[in-house]
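RECORD TYPE: inverse folding
INPUT: structure tokens
STRUCTURE:
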């Protein structure tokens, strides 16, 4: 396994968003040098920061940490399971559909605000 997969994936997210290290770090109150250290593997973000980045860039923590090559979860069943502590398997189909619709609504509402 690659030794600096977290750093490489952080850099991938930054470059895909067409951001400088300074721009990438700003929402997290990180200096450019800190982002550079994360990307090079000489330092690592704490767990809370990893969670925030994963949520902000719509990627799974498993992908960010190198446990999978699946960047994000598109399956509605997986999305619900990963974004909540609630067990949804016992809900009727119409309740699940309402949840899916709400998730789609929120994604569409905020997709251009990044």
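DESIGNED SEQUENCE:
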């Amino acid at each position: 396994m690659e030794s600096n997969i977290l750093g490489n994936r952080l850099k991938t997210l930054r470059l895909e968003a067409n951001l400088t290290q300074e721009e990438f770090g700003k929402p997290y109150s990180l200096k450019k040098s800190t982002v550079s250290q994360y990307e090079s593997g000489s330092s690592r973000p704490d767990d809370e920061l990893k969670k925030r980045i994963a949520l902000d860039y719509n990627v799974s923590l498993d992908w960010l940490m190198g446990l999978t090559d699946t960047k994000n979860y598109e399956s509605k069943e997986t999305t619900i399971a990963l974004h909540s502590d609630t067990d949804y398997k016992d809900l009727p189909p119409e309740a699940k559909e309402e949840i899916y619709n709400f998730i789609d609504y929120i994604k569409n509402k905020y997709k251009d605000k990044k």
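NOTES: Residues 88 and 96 are 7 Å apart (CA to CA).
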